[in-house]
Amino acid sequence: MKIKEIIQAIESFAPLQYQESYDNAGLLFGDASREVTNVLLTLDATEEVIDEAIARGCNLVVAHHPIVFGGLKKITGSNYVERVAIKAIRHEVAVYAAHTNLDNVRNGVCAEMAARLGLDHCRVLQPKKGLLKKLYTFVPEADAEKVRVALFEAGAGHIGQYSECSYNGAGEGTFKAGAGTDPYVGKVGERHFEKETKLEVIFPLYLEGRVISALLSSHPYEEVAYDIVNLDNTYNEVGSGLVGELPADMDELEFLRLVKERFGAGCVKYTNLRGKKVRKVALCGGAGSFLLKRAIGAGADVYISSDFKYHEFFDADNQIVIADIGHFESEQFTVELFYHILTEKFRNFAPLKSTIKTNPVNYL
Any idea which positions bind a divalent metal cation 1 (predicted)? Predict the structure, then answer.
């Protein structure tokens, strides 16, 4: 197996197109065409993790946080980022990161958090726009099902939890085949009328190449007529945070104790309690203060995230309870997510989980 196959498996789950504009997900060091010896999964690609990869015979480290986040102008070993780069390159250890793209998929990092609390009926807290496209094409009636199936197999036609969604309208097309053509129907030099189906399907933008390829390979016409339109629709499967419901109401302190235990948090920083039962819970892995208004708007009783600043706790304004559990604590189960993605795709492959706790924060 090659490194690029591991990358393809992760990016089919969390496409790079879903990362935020400030992010630096993807292959950071290494040659994607090299054979994989083994893979080490981690939250952070620290120096200790690179040493562990070398010791355990892994030539690929898959991390959540990109060790190179801003630009590197020099690589002299003057800081931990440069030292990781030097060591990884010297020992031919490739380093790959799936960061906000993995945060933004509905069944990604936040879903791992929600699973630890047993939340039901989860939905994306802040869905994204501009990630969907629509294909319109025109197919002879007798061939419409063949083309339709090909488009579905390429990943088109998903709306929420529904698949194989399309719209089909009957009509009549015309064309005149020119000299040197080989028309599927009709004759060269004569206008032809053909009963056709207008076929419409939605697809996420990262699948455009695959969808067009499926269309062209399955369509019987020599020249295929089609239109692709950018949609401004909200894509409810991709975005920041999740909101869901507990199976039963809980007292606030009882719930916060559960959160502390399930996430192994050194402490939980929280705002004033409201004296209400907890049922609806919003959450976001990593630094999630930007979603507080969304969590309040969604009617959540508690919002679990990390990295809140002092004055941001005031913004709860007795409308919600903020529970700051720590950055590492909120994202630690990403390693389990990586493991699940890779073992589901490659049944006879066993990636290794790092034994290094990379949390830079300690508690007394």
Answer: 65, 103, 327, 331
